[in-house]
Write a structure and sequence with these properties.
single chain; 462 residues; alpha+beta; Uridine Diphospho-n-acetylenolpyruvylglucosamine Reductase, domain 2; Uridine Diphospho-n-acetylenolpyruvylglucosamine Reductase, domain 3; Alpha-Beta Plaits; 21% strand; globular; binds (2R)-2-hydroxypentanedioic acid; binds zinc ion
Length: 462
């Protein structure tokens, strides 16, 4: 698909014409941060990074690329963890970061329209200013963008209460692979007028259209927040406790699990004091939020769980943040050991406890020198299996873990997407008929196969 010589020169000239010379980046140094993913595992190259200012320029960029047969990788904050936003096969990078306007919050509809390049933190600030909240939150909030999180249907920390990104997207604006622009941003909650294109594009990983804006649902801001960090002797009891808390606590926003090894790594990496005088094999961090102080509800729920060791409770923002660091800093701490293999999976809650125990053994059987780090959103069965000490292109561990996950009836991608990292294993979760339907949609919306052609499908879909 990548053109050489004069054809490329002509295409770049046209792209310069569309976005202006400052926003077509061809210099190798300036391109480099767009060519590598956040973890450092996926590294490619691009002839150019194109940075349109708005949806009209985005449409013109897609049109130029279509006509010249240039493949495109749409990119937002480039915080994706499955190699889906970097040009691994010489694609043009279409960076949406300049389209970062967050519109006025509609207080009565409780919605806001945000440009694809707006960060999740910017949406949070806008919602906060209107006394509301955007329900999607994740550790990469300062860099991850609306477009990227829509493209990957990002989950994050509050899925147990509010669902993932798809549940918040009321409308969408995008440029399809056909070059057509669609815009459906009125924000009507009841709107049964055919296919729900926001849902189709959400999670499509840039293969069907380039999202330029999204109409997002906001939720009530609960200012009474409490976080508890609970140490447990064993995983089964921790998982059982979370299941009980989920039904007992209407105000449960997050239930996150991590293990002693991960906690020690975080503390060592960032000079943090451990939360308790002694270590516990398993930790669960829970956050509750309500209009009235939920401390007593949380205390009652924690007290009723069996096998609870130490408990730390934080009501004020600084101490809540301090407890969250033990969980959120896992990603940063693990990356200090070199690019990890990131296997973001869901397993049915009934087998989650034994999965946590079995996975390190499965990893060690595949690559004895590998180290396994487990943490994640235990409330919805989503664990992040991180593996270090394995070469970036050595896929033995990925194969062993993903095959095991599928055999348990789980998903090989809970919230990060398939990208290039997992496309080999998509058949474990999707039948031939499902893959054929997905390919048919791809062909209809991107007949030239220009949009992110090297992700998602086991072989290029075009
Ligand atoms: C999180 O839950 C993110 O913090 C990143 O999904 C997970 O680093 C990871 O594997
Ligand atoms: Zn996560």
């Amino acid at each position: 698909m990548v053109r050489a010589g004069t054809a490329m020169t002509a295409a770049l000239r046209e792209l310069t014409h569309v976005v202006g010379p400052h926003h077509l980046i061809t210099d190798a140094d300036e391109r480099s941060s767009y060519e590598i993913d956040w973890t450092g595992r996926f590294h490619g190259h691009t002839p150019a990074v194109v940075r349109p200012a708005d949806a009209a320029e985005t449409a013109a960029v897609v049109d130029v690329c279509r006509r010249h047969g240039l493949a495109i990788v749409p990119q937002g904050g480039n915080t994706g963890l499955v190699g889906g936003s970097v040009p691994l096969a010489g694609e043009v990078v279409l960076s949406l970061r300049r389209i970062d306007e967050v519109g006025p919050v509609d207080r009565s509809a409780r919605q806001v329209t945000a440009g694809a390049g707006a960060t999740i933190a910017a949406v949070h600030r806008a919602a906060q200013g209107a006394g509301l909240r955007y329900a999607v939150d994740l550790a990469a909030r300062d860099t991850a963008t609306v477009g990227g999180t829509v493209g990957t249907n990002a989950g994050g920390l509050n899925v147990i209460r509010y669902g993932g990104t798809r549940e918040q997207v009321i409308g969408i604006a995008a440029v399809l692979g056909t070059g057509a622009r669609i815009e459906h941003l009125q924000g009507l909650v009841k709107d049964n007028t055919g296919y729900h294109l926001p849902s189709v594009l959400c999670g499509s990983e840039g293969t069907l259209g380039v999202v330029t804006a999204a109409r997002l649902q906001l939720v009530t801001r609960h200012d009474e927040r409490v976080v508890a960090l609970v140490g447990f002797h064993n995983v089964a009891h921790a998982v059982e406790a979370v299941a009980t808390w989920r039904s007992a606590l209407d105000c449960l926003e997050a239930a996150e699990l991590f293990l002693d090894g991960g906690l020690r790594l975080v503390c060592d990496s960032f000079g943090l004091a451990p939360p308790f005088d002694r270590a516990w094999p398993v930790y669960v961090l829970v956050e509750v939020a309500a209009v009235h102080d939920p401390t007593d509800d949380l205390a009652g729920a924690v007290a009723s769980a069996s096998d609870v060791g130490d408990v730390a409770v934080a009501g004020d923002a600084a101490r809540r943040e301090a407890l969250w660091r033990y969980r959120e800093d896992h990603t940063l701490a693990i990356n200090t050991l070199g690019p990890p293999h990131k296997l973001d999976v869901t397993v049915p809650l009934v087998v989650l406890g034994e999965f946590v125990v079995d996975v390190p053994r499965i990893v060690a059987a595949a690559v004895p020198e590998a180290r396994t780090w487990l943490f994640g959103h235990v409330g919805d069965g989503n664990l992040h299996v991180n593996v270090t000490g394995v070469a970036p292109d050595d896929e033995r561990v990925d194969d062993a873990v993903l095959t095991h996950v599928a055999s348990l009836g789980g998903s090989i991608s809970a919230e990060h997407g398939i990208g290039t990292a997992k496309r080999r294993w998509l058949h474990l979760n999707r039948s031939e008929a499902e893959l054929a339907s997905m390919r048919a949609i791809k062909r209809a919306l991107d007949p030239g196969g220009v949009l992110n052609p090297n992700v998602l499908f086991p072989t290029p879909a075009g």
